[in-house]
# Entry
Amino acid sequence: MTDLSLSGDDRLLKILRIIAWSLVAVLLALPAIAMAGGAEVQWGPEDFIAATLLLGGSGLVVELLVRVSRDWNYRIAAVLATFGALFTLWANLAVGIVGNEDNAINIGYYLIVPLLALGATLARLKPAGMAATCRTAATLYIGMGIAAFAAGQGEPAPFIIGIHALFVTIFMGAGQLFQRATGR
# Structure
């Protein structure tokens, strides 16, 4: 039964929420299915717990942030920034962004996520402050890339440059969308 009292935006948001949470469920089920099929995937309980916390926590953050503003620039920026934070943690936990997951330089990437949370808190989730926070995260990625090369950890160079460019693009894009949400 369709709820006719919902506006077009609310209906779209409801559909997107169902799709997003279904995607989280599928992503959590895939490793279990792969393990049952005899694939080389070997996840332990701790891997499923970490994945559930990362994906579920990210989903809850998005749920909160899309309720802050009805502006779609803000909402898309919130999803983009949350995805950037999630991908930072996931990639760093799985294989490490620079070298392998045990490389000491990767600690710096872990620090970007709480700095994003701190920036969002200090900004009180207002779009201008969120824009500045995302731009700061992008700048930190540039700095981390430079630090990786300075420490002799920039190999393979195309991968290191590419992954940093991806994160810079994600956070600069989110920052630009948050800026648009200010109406200026």
Observations:
- The CA atoms of residues 53 and 142 lie 28 Å apart.
- The radius of gyration is 18 Å.
